[in-house]
Write a structure and sequence with these properties.
single chain, transmembrane helix
């Protein structure tokens, strides 16, 4: 059944995380000097790649993580460490001039995957698709708790 509240929340969250006004200058810089037709094709390819990645991760994300034996908190910690490393690189002022080549398709990487469909979007899209469990679970302190609450705040 279609839940308008979940759809609205998911759409608004993904719109804010994807940041279309912030991605636009990056897209224009990466596709500068190319014909308009090629730019339109690259924009379409980037949106298709991002939509595909978000859809697949939304439907199968938890199964993929379970298969790889990666927990969601571990993924969050890894993402935080990655952001820390990027921030430290930016703070030190190390900048390498990107080389532009006309034969590289920037629609797939970096536009499609990390910019439009990065880890934050993938994790957010998989959350509402997950079915809640009805069985009691164990709290980290060892006591049983309900599926939606925890006895010690975890």
């Amino acid at each position: 059944m279609f839940d308008l509240a979940v759809f609205g929340s998911l759409f608004l969250t993904l719109f804010v995380i994807m940041d279309p006004p912030g991605i636009t200058p990056i897209f224009l810089a990466l596709t500068a000097g190319r014909p308009g037709k090629v730019q339109k094709r690259m924009a379409f390819q980037a949106v298709c790649v991002a939509g595909g990645v978000i859809t697949v991760f939304g439907l199968l994300g938890h199964q993929i993580l379970n298969y790889l034996h990666v927990s969601v908190p571990a993924l969050m910690i890894a993402g935080g460490l990655l952001l820390l490393l990027i921030a430290l690189d930016l703070l030190t002022g190390k900048t390498d001039e990107p080389k532009q080549t006309k034969d590289v398709n920037v629609a797939l990487v970096p536009l499609g995957m990390p910019l439009l469909a990065g880890p934050g979007r993938s994790c957010r899209s998989s959350s509402p698709c997950r079915r809640p469990t009805r069985s009691p679970r164990r709290c980290p302190c060892g006591r049983r708790s309900s599926p939606s609450t925890s006895c010690c705040g975890w």
